[in-house]
Design goal:
Shape of chain A: globular
Mean pLDDT of chain A: 92
Number of helices of chain A: 3
Number of domains of chain A: 1
Largest sheet of chain A: 6 strands, antiparallel
Radius of gyration of chain A: 16 Å
CATH architecture of chain A: Roll
Number of strands of chain A: 6
CATH superfamily of chain A: Hotdog Thioesterase
Structural class of chain A: alpha+beta
Order of helices and strands of chain A: EHHEEEEEH
CATH topology of chain A: Thiol Ester Dehydrase, Chain A
Strand content of chain A: 35-45%
Oligomer: homotetramer
């Protein structure tokens, strides 16, 4: 992952049997779910701004663009470390980089980045990321 | 399926690749999703009471008990007919029977029933099924 | 859960954001996945007969019937204990009871049972559960 | 979508209730599943080289990189057209562009591209795309 001023956080997850596809690998779309799950966890645990607090104030973070590299397949029984960190953040949104490490092999299974924008839940339209939010994420 | 006074409706669905599991069969939990998808479709199309109209009036149908028999595996590429019909309905809720036919083999892949109760979305508590709703479903 | 001669095992799982449905609850079909995930874990950890060893010897356990009671909704952020235990086992298959406890509320979110049969992977047909397997599960 | 010498094919899909997330939108990872489903369908229907024929000859296409733009949310009840086409293909793999049109709004819900490589199922290693395969996809 790119090192910059922002912290990188890590969450641990275990592959579930329903994540496995016809190739006996974790299905591509599940990597997505793993990163989102890690990010939710980290919003609450490290940034002290859980998704629930955004939702209750009428906002939500949604993915605008996703870029995922699949490097090595994950299989049944694997446990993973999902690391994420902010690449850039401004009033328009933020780019979050991630990598997924397979604990069994110590190798990177996948990496990439997600662009998030903030939306107003009631209208579904984009909303400015305010200074307080930017500060909370700038750790 | 048990024949009684209530209509039996049918919806067609195609198995998606992400429904396939490590045995190269449709994963057990997806049968559930197929029946719920068919039921939504049928609430709108045949009963003229789409889930959205329940939601917008503050109510929702939720599953209280599910009983599913898996008779024959579904595989990649299969298309299915999902038939559902009311078994019983009263102010406490309704029991819906279903069967899933594999169009390729003309055999029953799965059958069973779901008990639904009506909840008040704001409180999450159970709510009475009123006479108008019972009438709408008694076709 | 029913107490009988068989052990009851417990696995811990965390709800993932992709498990949440339009009612802001865990989607019904995911309870299924939770029980299967716990069972896989327990086959390996406690029975010392992981699903992989069945698969490599040409056999697999598949669900024949599922019966699930949904008692209380699970929501975003919940962590659960999934307990399972054998109710009956013989050469035709086994019935596994389960219950899911919400760690946050200490209440039962769901309980029920699954009937499993053993299949020969190459033919897809049912196969006898042999004495060695029955013994391994009779702890 | 970029027009080039290659054909663009279209498949129709209906959003399933289990695709809907806590924001009452189709969950991000499901777009992935929609494109894969469309691609499978099109491999069989238009290229006359279904995934099953690759699998039975010991090969499989796997996603190496995915790039997905989410432009407008899909909601419960939506039906979509998934269009895909080859951007580039050579012995190392192929890049497939896609776009998802919401039939209700006639607007693009998502677009992007996937890089696929061919793997030898038995070893899991990459394999050359041979001239016959390149020809079959060059329509």
């Amino acid at each position: 992952m790119e090192k910059n001023g922002y912290s990188i956080f890590e969450s641990e997850l275990k592959v579930r049997p329903d994540d496995i596809d016809m190739f006996n690998h974790v299905h591509n779309s599940k990597y997505f779910d793993y990163v989102l799950a890690a990010r939710y966890d980290q919003m609450e645990q490290f940034y002290k701004m859980p998704m629930e607090s955004f939702l209750s104030s009428g906002f939500g973070w949604v993915v605008r663009t996703a870029h995922v590299d699949f490097k090595r397949a994950l299989v049944m029984g694997d446990t993973i470390k999902v690391r994420t960190g902010i690449l850039t953040i401004n009033e328009k949104g933020c780019r979050v980089q991630f990598e997924i490490e397979n604990i069994r092999t110590k190798k990177i299974a996948s990496d990439g980045w997600f662009d998030y924008v903030l939306i107003d839940i009631s209208t579904g339209k984009g909303s400015k990321v305010n200074a307080e939010m930017i500060k909370a994420y700038s750790i």
